[in-house]
DNA sequence: AAAAAAG
């Protein structure tokens, strides 16, 4: 077992260098008692933003500037029927990049960026998911007549165009969550799916949606004013995550004729409305902007066949639940049973499962992997650090990383803090001390947020200070280290934060700064680490013991099965009838779930 | 208590 975090980064994340070599002088390190001296010789890299390529990506994910006056304004094509692969993909398509965007019909090749990235970062990095990392992990399903899993994409009839795109994405075989979720979803079943961070959930709900839309041959969509009638709606809790899902969905639906549009706040709504007018099959959105569009009658949900909530537990927690209820229950969305609903997350607390069952009809519950963390893939460290020592402690980590060559394009560091102000302050301080950092949080403009994320991803600014806005879902390759500078109060948030590393089968490191303020997290954190086969420091175990014994344990999971990796319907006290899962659904759901109540031993992996 | 999400 390695003892120093630097060793473990060395072994697990990036190639090798001699971690035990004498440390070179720390040109930029200022010990705490000398911190008021002028900053070091190394410039604080303030110019990173201006050095970004100007054509990096279209702002706000909208259409390219050139398409603005394109004359498509009066030609909504909501009623378009051409979903076959043959109709639109034959001749006529010119997907070579670089030229001016002249026609509204032109579809940008979403794979070009990736190919460029592959070259920039060397061969190894982008060979797709390391599937072997997901072998042999526990899977638990419950519900009536659960469709069996598949082992290969070839076994599923996703259609040739989609299969081609899957190959272009370099997905060789489905991840476990995909093996189970895709057949369930193709069978038309509602689904609540729990799967580890970074295990391919986006594709798991996108493939069936795209495939389902391609098979819908004769959908007549109304033409009413400038209202768009999407067939699928994907909701997510942050703007950047919606953007990311949109980008992924565009890849999967490339040259299929299926149109994907994204709508989120902080960006000009007019551009998004124009995109919608040009036709939309799959709408990816954040809740606030969608409500806005619904109220303006620019979007109608009456044709929705597929509803997917990513980070579903987050979408149904206190902050979001009213908006989600409004969208799902109080607008013109078809009732459950008439649409297909899929909920995905890495965490699913029982009380949220209970809420969620309002939206589902005779659903399958699926839990893949030890819900919580990618166990072996993320090395977790906890260090006891007083508030007053956090900055210098972080500095120590960063200097050691720099010496190991783990700062820069090959190794990004994501630092989580509790508050927006704290994020600004830490970013500023890191820059002053010679570490190229940027930040992302809800007080920054959307442009700043997207620039920060791009700059981080590209390695231009290899340190990102973030609030929980970046905790969920974001897939940032090459994040080698997640630092919980401030720990969250909720263990689920911790799980999602550290899940920004160790993705797609690659290894990662997570370091947490713990002190007395985090007392209430001691027990769940110690439990989680133990379950993930991580070394739990003795002092943390002592904290945990005190916490569970005194009144300090207000964690909702204490005593019950942890990590939400279990269908709440299987817990005795919830097992009292159909009111929990579809009272208003069109289907008379029987009080019993058939296969849902397996022998008690089946769920042991989750206890 | 904080963060996110509409403007």
UniProtKB/TrEMBL annotation:
Spans through the membrane: none
Catalyzed reactions per annotation: ATP + H2O = ADP + phosphate + H(+)
Biased composition (Basic and acidic residues): 564-577
CDD domains: DEADc_DDX3_DDX4, SF2_C_DEAD
Residue segments, region Disordered: 1-106, 550-583
Protein name: RNA helicase
Intervals of motif Q motif: 151-179
Pfam family, one: Helicase_C
Annotated source species: Senna tora
